């Protein structure tokens, strides 16, 4: 029988001998690390195309945001004025400024669209090539393992409560102690 405790904490055994057995059980559980060997035999090309297309589109918007920040930063420093002034003195005719916001963003959008097409196509072709190679060799074997809470193996000897909670979520445990 165990004594009542605060909600969310582990029960405290009434008999001290039971406490030693509970400590030994928890220590044994902590020492045994579950491992799951998995083989990656096939990558669905359609799924690869969809995922890579989404990632490429997101990266396109990140690219355009970076171009905008750089253009505005260089514009506030006067770099574009100096470049356009130098171009105007070197040009035989007066065609206008060399670098404009419209020109910069059109060129950046063209490069971004080309990257979307190339990376999406390349990823899909690589998935077909991987499937062909995995058919001949059996695929790639990976081993997934839990994190250890022992010193020198990831966490400190007295883990922070947030780390313990994170570790418990990895193991699939729904409740864990806070200390």
Query: What proportion of the residues is helical, as a percent range?
Result: 55-70%
Q: Sheet bearing the most strands, described?
A: 2 strands, antiparallel
Radius of gyration: 30 Å
Spatial separation of the terminal alpha carbons: 22 Å
Count, helices: 5
The overall average pLDDT, rounded, is 78
> Strand content of the residues, in percent?
5-15%
Spatial strand order of the main sheet: 1-2
Q: What's the overall geometry?
A: elongated
Element pattern in H and E = EEHEHHHEH
What do these coordinates show?
There is one protein chain. This protein has 179 residues and is mainly alpha-helical. It folds into two domains: 41-140, no CATH class; 148-179, no CATH class. It has five helices and four strands; from the N terminus they run E-E-H-E-H-H-H-E-H. It has helices at residues 16-31, 45-77, 79-90, 101-137, 161-171, and strands spanning 2-3, 12-13, 35-40, 140-145. A two-stranded antiparallel ribbon has the order 1-2. Strands 3-4 form a two-stranded antiparallel sheet. A hairpin with an 8-residue loop joins strand 1 (2-3) and strand 2 (12-13). Helix 2 runs antiparallel to helix 4 (101-137). The longest helix is centred in the middle third of the chain and has 37 residues, at 101-137. The model is unreliable at 155-159 and 162-179 (pLDDT under 50).
Give a quick set of tags describing it:
mainly alpha; 2 domains; 5 helices
């Amino acid at each position: 029988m165990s004594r009542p405790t605060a909600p969310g904490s582990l029960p405290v055994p009434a008999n001290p001998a039971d406490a030693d057995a509970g400590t030994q059980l928890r220590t044994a559980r902590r020492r045994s690390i579950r491992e799951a060997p998995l083989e990656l035999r096939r990558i669905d090309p359609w799924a690869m195309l969809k995922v890579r297309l989404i990632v490429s589109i997101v990266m396109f918007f990140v690219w355009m945001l970076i171009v905008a920040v750089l253009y505005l930063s260089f514009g506030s420093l006067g770099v574009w004025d100096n470049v356009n002034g130098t171009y105007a003195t070197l040009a035989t005719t007066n065609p206008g400024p060399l670098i404009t916001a419209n020109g910069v963003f059109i060129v950046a959008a063209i490069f971004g669209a080309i990257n979307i097409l190339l990376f999406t196509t390349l990823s899909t072709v690589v998935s077909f090539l991987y499937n062909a190679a995995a058919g001949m060799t059996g695929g790639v074997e990976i081993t997934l393992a839990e994190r250890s809470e022992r010193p020198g193996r990831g966490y400190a000897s007295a883990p922070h409560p947030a780390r313990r909670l994170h570790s418990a979520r990895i193991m699939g445990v729904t409740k864990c102690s806070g200390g």
